[in-house]
Design brief:
InterPro entries: Ester_Hydrolysis_Enzymes, Lipase_GDSL_AS, SGNH_hydro, SGNH_hydro_sf. This protein is α/β, with parallel strands linked by helices and 198 residues long. The chain has a single domain, classed as SGNH hydrolase (Rossmann fold), CATH 3.40.50.1110. 46% of the residues lie in helices and 14% in strands. It is built from eight helices and five strands, in the order E-H-H-E-H-E-H-H-E-H-H-E-H. The protein has a five-stranded parallel β-sheet with strand order 2-1-3-4-5, sandwiched between helices. Helix 2 packs across helix 8.
Length: 198
């Protein structure tokens, strides 16, 4: 049995929902249905930033070996307007540390976009920040040869019926879409990596 480590924040943890409703748990259901030999480990911590993730990474890697590492951090950086270079440097440091500790692991990076509803007369500083934030993730994935989920919250962000009352965290139906977004990339990878029977 191989391990998939999901390393993220409240989106990964399934904030406000039973653990079984989080998207990593739903990915486990898809893995089981496909009869693939993988076990999902959910290392989502609500409120975590990329700096927080960087600080706790070593402890997470020491607990469990991982054959696949899914990085899904950055949303809280955006909410707190953390400078883009800091977010990028933290994500890069996380990927470097995983590559060093687990050289054979498949890396997966989940892209994020920041939810600014900006009109043409809106705040141009926020528009620029949103554009720079979105642009952080794909180059990092390319740099480390990671598979790339273009936008973790695709189809969920801004949909009131798919989020909790706070409008920020996906509800159970929203988490299912997150699982689908991740599985579209992860599923083929796992099938490719699984040892053939016989």
């Amino acid at each position: 049995m191989k391990n998939i480590l999901f390393f993220g924040d409240s989106l990964t943890a399934g904030y406000g929902l039973p653990a079984a409703a989080s998207f990593p748990a739903l990915v486990q259901q898809k893995i089981d249905a496909a009869q693939l030999p993988y076990k999902v480990l959910n290392y989502g911590v609500s409120g975590d930033t990329t700096a927080g993730g960087r600080a706790r990474l070593a402890a997470a890697l020491a607990r469990q070996p991982a054959d696949v590492f899914v990085l899904a951090l950055g949303a809280n950086d955006g909410i707190r307007s953390v400078p883009i270079p800091d977010t990028s440097a933290n994500l890069q440091a996380i990927l470097e540390a995983v590559r060093e500790a687990l050289p054979a692991a498949q890396l997966v990076v989940a892209g994020l976009e920041f939810p600014f509803n900006v009109s043409p007369l809106g705040n141009h500083r926020l528009v620029r920040y949103a554009g720079e934030f979105k642009a952080v993730f794909r180059p990092l994935a390319q740099q480390f040869g990671a598979a790339f989920v273009p936008f973790l919250l695709e189809g969920v962000l801004g949909h009131r019926d798919l989020n909790l009352a706070d409008g920020v965290h996906p509800n159970a139906a929203g988490q299912q879409i997150l699982a689908d977004n991740v599985w579209a990339v992860l599923g083929p990878l796992l099938a490719q990596r699984a040892p053939s029977a016989g």
